[in-house]
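Quick log. Single chain, no ligands specified.
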Amino acid sequence: MTQPETQTESQPDIKLEVGQPFPAFSLSDAEGKVHTLEENQGKYVVLYVYPKDDTPGCTKEACDFRDALELRTLGAVILGVSADDAASHGNFSEKYSLNFPLLTDPGHQFMRSIGSWGSKNMYGKVTEGVKRSSFVIDPQGVLVKAWYAVKVDGHADMVTKVIREHQALSKA
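-> predicted structure:
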C-alpha cells in the first residue's frame, strides 16, 4: 500500500507573477488591529516575510527596514509578516523600536498562498517552514517585484531602489 502524499509534496512551489494583482490579505498586528492591502491603496507596500522574531537575521532585516528613511520619503508602507503570535511581535517591536506593523499568520495560510511557506532544503535536510521573501506592491495593488530566498544584507536598499525606479518609470 502506498502512503498518501503530504500537502507539501503535492503542492508545487508558488511564485507570484510580476504585473499581476497581489493577493488580498487581512492579518492582525500586535495590538489586534487588522491590516489589509486594500487600506493601503494609493501607496507602495513593502511586505516582507521572515522566519522568527528576535533572531539575528530577522532582527537585522527588521532594523534595516526601520532605518530605511528613503522608503518612507517615497511613500512606502512597510509590513512584516511571520507566524509568531501577537505577544512575540509586540515584544520584538518594542525592543527594537520598530516603526511599522508586524503581522501574524499563525496558520501559515497567507504565507503559503504567496509562496513564502513550504518545503525548503537546509544542509540536505528537507523541512517545511518560512521562506524569507519580500514583495513590492504598487499603489494599484499590482506586484512590482518579488524576492524569494532573501539575503538580508543590503535588501532594504534594493527594495528602495526598485520603488524609486518604478516611480520614475510611472512618471515617464
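Strands lie at 26-28, 34-36, 44-49, 76-82, 102-104, 117-122, 125-130, 133-137, 143-148.
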